Give the backbone structure.
Amino acid sequence: DELFLADVSKKGGLIEWLGCEPKPKGGLFGRPLCNATRQKLGNIPILKMAQEDLARFNFPCKNIFVAENDASGLSLPELPNTIAVFGGGGNVSWMKSTYLNSKRVIYWGDIDSYGFKFLSDARNLCPHTVSVMMDMDTVLNFEQRMTDDSVYDGNLSLLTNDEQILCNNIKDNQFSCTRLEQEFIAQDYINKAITKSIDVS
């Protein structure tokens, strides 16, 4: 800015002055989970996309597996005809995309009140979204690994009856703690549950 007589500031900052693309905001990861899908994406093992691009990009697969957290998405097993989208936390705005209407969409989040909020938000944009490992069986299997966290008190209108009951039980302190994070679920349990959830036809 000193060398160029404040021209950098006048243009709005270094990125604008250099004419570079800004760092994408709200980026999420996309990861093909089988060789056939990877080949359709030029053998790219993982990519990060801005949510606007993600909403426009029709992934070449039948199943879109949405995971709330980075570590969970990176640990997913090989699954046929499936691409995982993860790392957005509560950022599900890209799920308004119409191309999802022709996909099986599976959502996996933390089992806590905020995880259920994100699931409800996802269904608001993509009504046929189904959940996996956000159920009573998963909690009962791993209750000893639960931790405490803050509770979301808002109304969640787009949960199934079983999901709503579990969410209410969490809010009412019916378990040892209020949160079961994805990362605390055993990998063999994850692999079995996820494999059952996808469309292999």
